[in-house]
């Protein structure tokens, strides 16, 4: 689990300020067959050493390693031999290349590799003296050998299975908890036939030689769990059957397509099936929109308000889900600061201001706790502050951010709004709040057409982009202005077509 966490943490990060800037975003994972056919080398390995540039500084430090050395334990494809050593480059954190850790020495891996390269395999290197090394890519099937059930199910028996139609997959969760991977029932329903199977102790299953056709996979999740359909787009299922319309047709039913001689995968992530549903209402019983409710485990100390949360919709309704079974308290406005959506102090279900008086909400797996009403006992008056965000020539700044920043940040919260087509905005400011209102506009060289003024501003600040700041207007909600104007220090220009 440690390897997975570190890898995901850096794959979705973004690195700025380096000689090269990368951003890695993974699409759906290829199937075993696709990965095998597109790789130059497919090998099982064991990490035997790392080359360090310095000592490690902090848990998530990756820059202390220059390279990692693997010894090949089994060859599935490629011109290497068992016992041969392969040197792997250390990833940069956001360049889609694996990052290794010294604590992994002795661990085993399955790698799908391209040819060794000097520098990043996609970008190359300007350093003529840089060493040629392998690069394990994060967006693919390379993984710890102890988790390669689906891959090894095929690779270890290729002589018998090559060319056969295959449906396979793994069932799992992000964190093990009480999830039982074994004996999850799966039924593959076609137009004329259906086929059934179950997952093994690792959550793995495979079926060979299904007639090519479109099917529906009907999954029977363990009690208290449900399919995380959002993650389908990132699994091998999404790779082979990518089509935005091919989402679950009903609860636990997933369309799949079987093609002759190819692999199709059904990799599923499950999440705990729990929820608390309710409403937040004002002292007079009216729905409150934008109030954020957090479900906090009673196992945490008073004042520790970590937990799943959800903000109310137009009807004042909230749904907090995916919680472990247990006892919870519901907290609204956990930081206690007032703003236009939450003009009240921290409040606990069913509508009390003291933690010790909070009601307990029991959460059970597979059951939804509904009908919870949180009535806010007291709110402060809200004052309407209207304004316009304009260019220096009086034209509106459209769809850009405007912020209210209070002087007393302990009692009042920041607020932000986007301008409409006329550059207008409206804040509901809690009575008693004093602060400043200003706007900003992110711009770059090609955003506007033939705009010398904005080009000059960007050039003056260096780089290719710039966030322009407006004038600042001070507002006292005790004596609110009828209308305010904030302006940018340059006139408007016509937007380029691609930004219209």
Q: What order do the helices and strands come in, and which of them pair?
A:
Blueprint: H1 2-11, H2 32-38, E1 41-52, E2 65-77, E3 85-89, E4 108-113, E5 117-118, E6 132-133, E7 143-144, H3 149-155, H4 158-161, E8 166-172, E9 185-189, E10 194-198, E11 204-208, E12 213-220, E13 225-227, H5 236-240, E14 253-258, E15 263-265, E16 268-272, E17 275-281, E18 292-297, E19 309-311, E20 317-321, E21 326-332, E22 347-348, E23 361-363, E24 368-375, E25 382-390, E26 401-406, E27 415-418, E28 424-430, E29 434-444, H6 452-461, E30 465-469, E31 473-476, E32 484-487
Parallel strand pairs: 8-15, 8-16, 17-24, 25-32
Antiparallel strand pairs: 1-2, 1-4, 2-3, 4-7, 5-6, 8-11, 9-10, 9-12, 12-14, 13-16, 17-20, 18-19, 18-21, 21-22, 21-23, 25-28, 26-27, 26-29, 29-30, 29-31
Q: What would you note in describing this structure?
A:
The protein has 500 residues and is mainly β. The chain has four domains: 2-144, OB fold (Dihydrolipoamide Acetyltransferase, E2P) (Beta Barrel); 163-272, Immunoglobulin-like, CATH 2.60.40; 275-375, Sandwich (Immunoglobulin-like); 382-499, Carboxypeptidase-like, regulatory domain (Immunoglobulin-like, Sandwich), CATH 2.60.40. Helix content is 9%, strand content 36%. The protein is built from six helices and 32 strands. It has helices spanning 2-11, 32-38, 149-155, 158-161, 236-240, 452-461; strands at 41-52, 65-77, 85-89, 108-113, 117-118, 132-133, 143-144, 166-172, 185-189, 194-198, 204-208, 213-220, 225-227, 253-258, 263-265, 268-272, 275-281, 292-297, 309-311, 317-321, 326-332, 347-348, 361-363, 368-375, 382-390, 401-406, 415-418, 424-430, 434-444, 465-469, 473-476, 484-487. The strands form eight sheets. It has a five-stranded antiparallel sheet, with no helix packed on it.
């Amino acid at each position: 689990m440690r390897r997975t966490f570190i890898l995901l943490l850096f794959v979705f990060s973004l690195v700025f300020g380096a000689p090269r800037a990368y951003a890695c975003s993974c699409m759906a994972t290829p199937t075993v067959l696709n990965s095998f056919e597109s790789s130059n080398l497919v090998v099982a390995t064991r990490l035997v050493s790392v080359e360090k540039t310095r000592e490690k500084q902090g848990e998530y430090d990756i820059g202390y390693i220059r390279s990692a050395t693997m010894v090949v334990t089994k060859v599935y494809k490629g011109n290497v031999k068992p016992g041969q050593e392969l040197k792997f480059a250390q990833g940069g954190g956001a360049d889609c290349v694996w990052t290794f850790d010294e604590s992994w020495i002795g661990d085993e891996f399955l790698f799908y590799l391209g040819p060794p390269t000097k520098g990043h395999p996609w970008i190359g290197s300007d350093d003529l003296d840089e060493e040629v090394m392998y690069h394990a890519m994060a967006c693919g099937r390379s993984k710890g050998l102890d988790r390669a059930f689906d891959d090894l199910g095929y690779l270890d028996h290729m002589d018998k299975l090559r060319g056969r139609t295959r449906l396979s997959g793994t069932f799992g969760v992000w964190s093990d908890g009480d999830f039982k991977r074994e004996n999850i029932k799966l039924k593959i329903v076609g137009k004329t036939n259906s086929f059934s199977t179950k997952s093994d102790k690792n959550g793995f299953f495979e079926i060979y030689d299904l007639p090519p056709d479109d099917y529906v996979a009907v999954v029977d999740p363990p009690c208290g769990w449900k399919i995380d359909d959002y993650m389908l787009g990132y699994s091998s299922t999404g790779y082979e059957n990518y089509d935005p319309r091919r989402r679950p047709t009903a609860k636990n039913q997933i369309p799949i397509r079987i093609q002759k001689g190819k692999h199709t995968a059904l990799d599923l992530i499950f999440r705990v099936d729990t929820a608390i549903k309710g409403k937040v209402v004002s002292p007079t019983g009216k729905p409150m929109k934008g109030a954020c409710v957090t479900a906090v485990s009673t196992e945490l100390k008073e004042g520790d308000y970590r937990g799943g949360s959800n903000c109310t919709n137009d009807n004042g309704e909230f749904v907090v889900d995916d919680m472990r079974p247990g006892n919870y308290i519901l907290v609204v406005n956990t930081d206690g600061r007032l703003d236009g959506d939450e003009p009240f102090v921290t409040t606990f279900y069913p509508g009390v201001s003291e933690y010790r008086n909070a009601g307990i909400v029991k959460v059970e797996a597979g059951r939804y706790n509904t009908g919870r009403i949180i009535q806010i006992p007291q709110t402060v008056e809200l004052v309407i502050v209207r304004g316009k965000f304009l260019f220096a020539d009086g034209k509106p700044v459209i769809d850009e951010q405007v912020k209210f920043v209070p002087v007393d940040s302990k009692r009042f919260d920041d607020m932000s709004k986007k301008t409409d087509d006329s550059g207008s905005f409206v804040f509901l400011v809690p009575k008693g709040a004093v602060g400043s209102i200003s706007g900003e506009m992110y711009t770059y060289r090609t955003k506007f057409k033939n705009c010398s003024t904005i080009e000059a501003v960007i050039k003056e600040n260096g780089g290719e982009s710039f966030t322009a700041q407006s004038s600042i207007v001070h507002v006292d909600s005790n004596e609110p202005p009828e209308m305010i104007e904030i302006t940018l220090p340059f006139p408007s220009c016509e937007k380029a077509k691609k930004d219209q």
